[in-house]
Specification:
The complex is a heterodimer of chains A (153) and B (374).
Chain A: H1 3-11, E1 18-20, E2 27-30, H2 36-45, E3 53-61, E4 66-73, E5 80-87, E6 94-96, H3 105-116, E7 119-121
Chain B: H1 2-10, E1 16-20, E2 32-38, E3 41-48, H2 56-60, H3 65-72, H4 80-95, H5 101-129, H6 134-154, E4 163-164, E5 167-168, H7 176-199, H8 202-208, H9 216-221, H10 226-230, H11 238-241, H12 262-284, E6 305-312, E7 317-324, E8 332-336, H13 338-342, H14 346-350, H15 355-365, H16 369-373
Antiparallel strand pairs in B: 1-2, 2-3, 4-5, 6-7, 7-8
Classes of the chains: A alpha/beta (153), B alpha+beta (374).
Chain lengths: 153, 374
């Protein structure tokens, strides 16, 4: 489906979605955190969209907000969108886990937790996946101070 | 027999945990797997990653795009050429740099040589994991020839750092065409030996056939990719799906299998080597004339916005996703690693198999640990 058609189909599911068509080759769907699971389930199961393949999950620190970018693809319809969700809570950021909808999110959600401190409600084994368990802080955040990093000097 | 049944009924077994790695030779690098076992049967596999984590994504936020290419060599070191190419293509696409046909063809030939070299190493180690040491020497003997070709042109054997923004770093060496042709002639004779030695070996077949089966639906749900996913019937070759460089002008088959077991994954990689040779043969005879590097600005800034470039490495669908705020370094750079994605399937594959089967399964996913850890 083309971006316009996708926008029409996905837009009919909820009034709280925001669509962005500039700045990326894919349609960007911004979804409020409370509706992430509902929309994700719809995106996967609806016959028109059929987003069954999660290509990647990227944690992002926008400076004030923390967010996630899901690149999701349909293996039958051959289209791709970016699903974005944000939160302004830097102390205790959390989203609902989608690792049961897209099992490919399983390790990726742990990665977002490891680097950005984003928690996922309902994730089976959320842990420091790459860093040491005793690591202090969330290193990929923009306000993380690393005094040993020679590159930032 | 009666006695054994008696024991099985009376003696309670207990699940226990066992650490495999981080230095077990069959883990293909420094990685640990925590196994939950019942006797020798696997109930659960939890990979513990991060032993070679170098925070390449974080480092990339502080350096320029030209410098980032250098770091991508260190992700999947067996597909370093494709990794370089991914970043180069990303920047070229975003800034509108047009490269000529010569560059496209050179990149494609190099990518396919890398793919053959990577699959040769995988085959060599795969044999060793199943107890056949000879394959290791056969695989490395032939891989040396490709490394020599790389050395002559790129100045390096493993981390080539050859694709740069706007072209390639050096022009082809004068011996390049002849040596590649010689290699193809040599390897077309040697590849059937691989089948004679390992593919048709009864012990090997019994250890791989019907082991670690994944269905197409599972492979898609786990986000798996590359030869591992194609062995389960998932059409996912980026060279066909979103052609880049010179892949739109060559004819080749996307190798598929439907069984989804360890042997299918083995078979797909062996056949991919034939296809890679076919691609090289179509291009090697008339490499177009022209510049090997187009002129670019000294400081390259990406337009603000989001950019994604995917390439097919020897392990699968490698993606570079950059969020730019218009500066010379990315605001956020994500490397979507094919090995990391393939790790999702390991637990499902191993359900109810033995420890020895885990070694086979792990070998057939063909992970490169630095690519997982990044």
């Amino acid at each position: 489906m083309t971006n316009t058609e996708l926008k029409e189909v996905i837009g009919s599911w909820s009034e709280n979605l925001n669509f962005v068509e500039e700045g990326s080759e894919f349609l960007i769907v911004e979804v409020p955190a409370a509706e992430l699971r509902k929309i994700a389930e719809k995106l996967k199961t609806d016959a028109n969209t059929a987003f069954d393949y999660m290509f990647s999950l990227t944690g992002v620190d926008y400076g004030e907000d923390l967010g996630l970018v899901f690149h999701i693809e349909s293996t039958t319809k051959n289209h791709m969108i970016e699903l974005k969700v944000k939160t302004s809570d830097r102390e205790n950021p959390n989203f609902d886990s989608v690792s049961d909808i897209w099992p490919a999110a399983y390790f990726n959600e742990s990665e977002a937790y490891d680097f950005f401190g984003i928690k996922f409600n309902g994730h089976k084994n959320l842990r420091r996946i790459f860093l040491d368990e005793n690591w202090i802080g969330w290193p990929m955040r923009k306000d993380y101070k690393d005094e040993f990093n020679m590159l930032t000097r | 027999m009666g006695n054994q049944q008696f024991l099985a009924d009376k003696i309670r077994t207990q699940e226990y945990h066992l650490n495999m790695g981080p230095q077990h030779p069959a883990t293909h690098g420094v990685m640990r797997m925590v196994l939950k076992l019942d006797g020798e049967e696997i109930r659960d596999v939890e990979p513990v990653m991060g032993y070679i984590h170098r925070s390449i994504e974080k480092m990339s936020e502080h350096i320029t795009y030209k410098q980032i290419i250098h770091l991508t060599d260190r992700l999947d070191y067996l597909s370093s050429h494709q990794n370089n190419e991914a970043v180069a293509l990303l920047v070229e696409k975003a800034t509108g740099i047009e490269v000529n046909d010569r560059i496209k063809v050179i990149r494609t030939i190099m990518s396919e040589l890398s793919r053959i070299a990577s699959h040769q190493l995988w085959w060599a180690v795969m044999g060793m994991d199943t107890g056949a040491l000879t394959t290791f020497f056969y695989g490395f003997r032939d891989r040396e020839l490709i490394n020599d070709i790389f050395e002559e042109t790129c100045g390096s054997r493993l981390t080539m750092n050859y694709s740069v923004i706007g072209g390639v770093r050096y022009d082809l060496h004068e011996n390049f065409v002849k040596r590649v042709k010689d290699f193809i002639v040599h390897f077309r004779k040697k590849l059937p030996e691989y089948d004679q030695l390992l593919s048709n070996n009864v012990i090997f077949r019994k250890r791989t056939e019907g082991i670690g089966i994944l269905t197409k639906e599972q492979v898609i749900a786990f986000g798996m990719n590359g030869p591992t996913a194609r062995a389960s019937g998932f059409v996912c070759d980026i060279r066909k799906k979103i052609p880049y460089s010179a892949y739109d002008r060559v004819h080749f088959e996307e190798i598929m299998a439907t069984e989804g077991d360890a042997f299918a994954r083995y078979k797909v990689r062996i056949l991919e080597m034939w296809e890679s040779m076919r691609i090289i043969e179509q291009l090697i005879d008339d490499i177009p004339e022209g510049e090997f590097k187009v002129k670019t600005k000294a400081v390259i800034k990406l337009p603000a916005g989001e950019h994604l470039q995917r390439v097919e490495t020897a392990r699968g669908d490698f993606g570079v996703y950059a969020i730019s705020d218009g500066k010379k370094n990315p605001f956020r750079l994500k490397f979507r690693s094919p090995s990391f994605a393939n790790m999702h399937g390991l637990n499902k594959m191993s359900e109810g198999t033995k420890i020895a089967d885990l070694v086979v399964n792990f070998s057939t996913i063909d992970v490169v640990v630095p690519d997982i850890d990044r």
